[in-house]
Design a protein that fits this description.
The chain has 159 residues and is an alpha+beta fold. It folds into 2 domains: 46 residues, no CATH class; 98 residues, 2-Layer Sandwich (Alpha-Beta Plaits). The chain contains 6 helices and 7 strands, in the order H-H-H-E-E-E-E-H-E-E-H-H-E. The strands form 2 sheets. The protein has a 4-stranded antiparallel β-sheet with strand order 5-6-4-7. A 3-stranded antiparallel β-sheet has the order 1-2-3, with helices on one face. The protein starts with a helix and ends in a 7-residue tail after the last strand. This is YCII-related domain-containing protein.
Length: 159
């Protein structure tokens, strides 16, 4: 391992820095939670444990029957929470699922069936943990037990 780290250090330290003195260019190797390669001019850190990988998850959460009035009542609070999640990068897309095409864009014309989201998280459980705090779950609008959650690999996006 030390030989490999010395090889990496030689590749990243400019030749001019290597020509100083043997003592000045000697590579110091430490092994703890990180592997460190230090020279008089550069330090490279290679983590022995990387950050957890995140995935995109397609989420469809149905509404419980008879919750249209409650949905509309708590909708402003839902949008506040969603805005915060968008700002953190956890929510990439979201919107209502409708039972049928509405006659117009008025909320009163829409027959809500649930919601859909694109969530960035490490695991299915992390997705559930995020959405269970939504006001739609807390107020009984979303049927979290019937939520459909799939890992997704998005092929393209249109702005």
């Amino acid at each position: 391992m030390a030989a490999r780290l010395n090889s990496i250090a030689r590749q990243i330290v400019p030749p001019a820095s290597r020509s100083v003195s043997a003592a000045a260019t000697r590579t110091r190797i430490q092994q703890d939670s990180f592997t460190s390669i230090s020279t008089n001019t550069n330090t490279v850190r290679m983590s022995s444990s990387s950050a957890p990988r995140t995935y995109e998850w397609l989420v469809v959460v149905p509404d419980k029957p008879g919750t249209m009035e409650k949905r509309l009542e708590v909708r402003p609070q839902h949008f506040e929470g969603v805005t915060k999640m968008k700002e953190t990068g956890a929510f990439k897309m979201g919107g209502a699922v409708l039972e049928e095409m509405p006659a117009d864009d008025e909320v009163s014309s829409m027959k809500f069936a649930g919601s859909t989201l694109m969530v960035v998280a490490e695991s299915r459980q992390a997705v559930i943990d995020m959405i269970k705090d939504d006001v739609y779950v807390r107020s009984g609008v979303w049927d979290l037990e019937k939520a459909m959650i799939w890992p997704a690999k998005i092929a393209f996006r249109v702005p």
